[in-house]
Amino acid sequence: MSLKDVAQLAGVSIKTVSNVVNHYEHVTPAMRERVQRAIDELGYRPNLTARNLRKGRTGIIALAVPELGNPYFAELAGEVIDAAAEHELTVLLDHTRGEREREVLVSQGFRARVIDGLILSPLELEPEDLSARTDDVPLVLLGEREYALPYPHIAIDNVAAARSAVRHLIRLGRTRIAFLGARTDSPNRPAQLRLQGWREELKAAGLEGGERLAAPTGGWDRGDGAEGMARLLASGVRPDAVFAYNDLVAVGAMRVLHERGLRVPWDVAVVGFDDVPESRYGAVTLTTISPDKKAIARLAVSSLVSSLERAAAQRVNGNGDAPPEQQPSVLAPFRLLERESTLGRR
User: Fold this and answer.
1) What is residue 308's three-state secondary structure?
2) In this predicted structure, what is the pLDDT of residue 53?
3) Per the CB 3.0–4.6 Å rule, which of 67, 178, 204, 301 could disulfide with 213?
4) Measured torsion, CA atoms of residues 273, 276, 281, 284, in degrees rounded to the nearest 10
5) First to last CA, the chain
6) What is the CA radius of gyration of the chain?
7) Is the pLDDT of residue 318 over 90?
8) Is-contact 241 165, C-beta < 8 A?
9) Which of 110-119, 121-130, 188-197 has the lowest mean pLDDT?
């Protein structure tokens, strides 16, 4: 099956069929419908490999995240795959474990001959690592760390999100609100920003937000949340609410509270962050900050596609060496989902 067969059935030129298949704008609706009927009747499928080769592309982009085992990144990866499919792009997944060496390796283009572009969610990558980047594969950054470099950057406002979580707890009458997941020694920018938002909202309400209630964790998984909660209680601090760095930390904390005979939310209310599936289906559903993962994915993919098109246009116009322009960060929306861990079972 070929373009020629479709053109013959539709009674149009091969160029017209090509324009329809390649989604060119300057085709009348009537002509587009006529060609589409012929495509459907013949069951024609474009040869994407050949098309990409003509464009000098592979049709593959990469998504590199710190933890594929983390439900948040697993959901985000699914949304990126769906968004990329709308542009007829295949997604190659990479797992950096949040290690600087692996993030540098990925960002420096060790898959440059395989992929057209890269979406990277870094934790420990430093600005100098990106400044030294020689690979010309388009790059989009995810996450809250600002690099002040000419790469599209998609994030959410973590400070505002944290403040909305703490504000919710204050409105429920909670006055001893702990932050679980504080690690000032870590380059993890979201943790620092969420801690900042926690402090700002408590200060605005005239409540304590000192180090006594800022409980560190060794990491940000369920076990880390459980250990951090146990240490906080053992220190003699008795919060009446906990704002956790993420949902996994919150789940671990709730397990320890249950073991100690403290009822959620009557004795201790708990708020998480990320809205992973586990937060929706636990014995006590978790109030959480829900970043719009679909919006983050769509913004990232569309930014990458725009970068690809801009690079192609520069090559055609003979200014492929023109320095890229500084791109402002794009903020995706979030919302607070109120559930049983703060409101109780209705």
Assistant:
1) helix
2) 47
3) 178
4) -10
5) 60
6) 25
7) no
8) no
9) 110-119
